[in-house]
């Protein structure tokens, strides 16, 4: 882990987050999953160092509607994508702090501010990262639901470090332990099919999943339902806390994606991956 990543971890996860990352690196060597990467593709990245996603720049992204699940307090990728491609971003996140962060951004857009006013700067320094010039509020849509395999109400478990924003449906930060005895809030969940049908999306050009462990069941359900986004940017959060289960879960889903025509074109070395369906954008 280089100095830049250490500083980012301290800023976003706290000193305990850095400690867990170091321990995770040690465990990762033992539980390292099998990675088959094809990095012979031209890719671009959007977003801050913390929130960035890597994908293939394609003409079909222009004026597209993409789905971004798990936004937290950094929607830099979503904003930059909306601006670059004149796209609509359907975001899903029921986390209270994420909803509050989103509401402040929409308020800024409605007030006609390309940046952040002084009051909001003082109240939320995270907003300073955004350039909202040219962004229409209709391009950033938030569904205050969790993404899951069925329409239901679920426990949404709080992070171990309460300074962190991310909650989890599967409680991977607490060894996947379930039950009302673990601190949680109740949230409503919906499926990928629900979003596709509501917004009449014929083809998902890009799907972003940063859903704190729920990606395993969500991707399995997605493939079972024959839903094939052209690009999938996914964080396998279990790999941030390396274990036998996290290794097994990743390799199972990786094999399923490959069996359905996907190839891995980006891997950050820890938990962020990008898969592309029948990729053809090869470098010369």
Automatic annotation (TrEMBL):
It comes from the Bacteria. The keyword Transferase applies. GO terms for biological process: methylation. It holds the Pfam family Methyltransf_21. Keywords: Methyltransferase, Transferase. One of its GO terms (molecular function) is methyltransferase activity. Residues 151-264 form the Methyltransferase FkbM domain. InterPro entries: FkbM_mtfrase, METTL24, SAM-dependent_MTases_sf. This is FkbM family methyltransferase. It comes from Aquimarina algiphila. The lineage of its organism: Bacteria, Pseudomonadati, Bacteroidota, Flavobacteriia, Flavobacteriales.
